[in-house]
Request: fold
Amino acid sequence: MADALLRVRDVRKTFPGVVALDGVQLTVGRGEVHALLGENGAGKSTLLKTLAGAQRADQGTIDFDGRTLSPDDTPIQRQQAGIVTIYQEFNLLPAMSVAENMYIGREPLRNGLIDWQQMFRDAQKIIDDLGLELGPKTQVRKLSVAEQQMVEISKALTMNAQLIIMDEPTAALSGREVDKLHEIIRDLKAKGISIIYVSHKLNEVKAVCDRYTVFRDGKYITSGSVADVTVNDMVRQMVGRDVEFLKKQATGTVGDVVLKIQGVSRAGSVSDPHAVVLRDMSVEVRAGEIVGFAGLVGAGRTELARVIFGADPCDEGIVYVNGNQISPLRSPKQGIDAGIALVPEDRKQQACFLVHSIRQNMTLPSLGRLTKWKYFIDEAAETKLIEEYRQKLRVKMANDQVAIGTLSGGNQQKVILARCMALKPKVLIVDEPTRGIDVGAKAEVHQVLFDMARSGIAVIVISSELPEVMAVSDRIVTFREGQITGSMPAGEATEEKLMSRMAIGVGEHHVHAAE
Amino acid sequence: MANTMVTAKEAGRRGFDFVGFMEKYGVLLFLILLIILFSAYNPRFLSARNITNILTEVSIYGIIGVGMTYVILTGGVDLAVGSLLAFAAMGGAYVVQALGGDFVLSWLVALLISCAIGTAAGYLHGKTVTKFNVPPFIVTLGGMTVWRGMTLIINDGGPISGFDAGYRWWGRGDILGIPVPVLVFMIVALAGYIVLRYTRYGRQVYAVGGNPEAARLSGLNVNYVLASVYVITGFLAGLAGFLLSARLGSAEAVAGMNYELRVIASVVIGGTSLFGGIGGVGGTVIGALLIGVLINGLVMMNVSPYYQQVIIGVIIVLAVAFDTYAKSRRGGRK
Reply:
């Protein structure tokens, strides 16, 4: 493309133990809407951060608007160059007005003071140009999610953006709002502004994008014109595979139903527009069985798990363990008492006490069984328990007094798994068991899950990585937009089949086409 | 094991870990340094009489410091302790006075009433923090003026005195030469240490302060733990109030003025992190001694009380600055 606005070449970025970007390329033309596609972990976010100046690439070049950008640019320098990123979590100050947000840090001045009239006039002009109905003096917190997004776009225009990067722009929008956004995108395009559009919603990509690029496992796969391919072609290019996981062997010891969930529903929340609505979810998990929950972020997998565990409330629905109704659960304590253990999604925020010792981390919920004289900790019994699980899970640690925060991600996860195993649960729910840990440790974590299942525990594994779900599960349940869309034996599952039940906008006929 | 080797290698390369050493023993070293300095300047500093004096003074707010350690470990703070001390003491003394002043076991009545008032007020603080989600800073800031006001209301601002010898023994008596308040402080500190270090509840206090969400998902009753630390501190403020009134021979409306500052300073100088989750009672005892020695020594050096305030303030800020610095270094691989 001769008239390219952005040309990314051979960009490489590694994190300890992980190659996030392995020599990727991306070319975006002027006035082009370009879709960046890939599964979670494909490297999209890393590239976006590199473009925005939030991260420094290890190597590679970024040419923009006819010149090569310095890899040391700060986010502000990139904005001044004309690259503006709109993240999924908006960067707005809720208590300030629309105009103040648009011009923050760049307020028009007169005699050294903010020229409010000028600011409101300029803001109004940009809002009018976009055909929006926003008051520049309105407080941002009073706006809907869609309107806040419009403020972000308006803000980008005040910076004379030539390239606007939108990360999952429609994640929280309703159908009509999506149409409105697409209208504005076409408008921007007509003005000669280029857009990088990152979305899992492939029908939207078809509707609004000109070209697309696919990343997979940190590598560039392909790019082309959206008009030339079908949604299923894009799915196939996204999931094509070369990472292999150890497959779970069918144990043949699958027993009775341990966990039974019936009709779990939850309405949205007024206070939190990002809250996921759950619609009539029912699942059964048997003893010794590993059931995988597959779905995109926000599809309701994690949300359902948290309801089962008692971490979040639900409006309706019954949960049984071994035939006894345990719902409604009001706290994780009740979930644990009922025999459910959860390894949460975000290890550092929700599971680890980072500055505390491995000892404190591993035994905290089990201390009730490790006491003497009722209130005192039986440290000898505690040491024995820690040693047992250290060996079982092969945790690499100098001693149990070391802070868990100093361990590698894989070892941290093993400590958290040990914490759950020590509770001797009937049901184990593991959310993103191997996020951010290296390949070797992944296999070890999977082995732990297999061992747990073999001992007769009902296991649920939630993962955004389809190959992982397919490798560890006996059966896979798919989620889409707060609904369960199917359940199939792992042996019959292919990534295309699963994707067609997870992705939004892959219509019914596509499902049949894929099957 | 790979991890062990790396740690050993890093330690070898860095040599002596100065920050780590200072984090552990810095305050103790500073305390010893101060004692040497003050005694060199004025030999009377190390007289038995002066040492007794310092220790008794330290004990009163040190007792509250043990409770405050728990509060700060959960990531909270209790600004009401000084006022609560006065209110509890005044309440106890008021009942004793109403019952005739000097009667057998009048001290027991005062002790029970003071501790009951402190416990009840602490319960109120804790419930307000957990039930209505008001930040501890605000709840106890309110408590600070409420309890001071109540103290003034009880006896119209005047002191209550005229306690009998049995009552005053708790402030001025001794057992084998050790002042009674010091003995009480030793018992409270020891108990506070044991609970924190050896019981399930102690682990839960650390957990709630270290990561409240992880604590909740680990099945802890976070609100129970949070509320309990204010109850403990309230109880101890009541106990300290009783001891102070026994020592002074009267319950005074201005008792415990600015104690919250001294107590919080003891805890923070003692290495308990204001971010919660790190620290302990041992450090608080050293911190309380440091402040006691500093105040007493400055008086003996004839430094004006105005300067004392400046010096103590600066030391508190430096202690927290160091804590933050050490924390950022610890956080190297989070």
Confidence is low (pLDDT under 50) at residues 1-14 of chain B. Residues 48-257 of chain B form one domain.
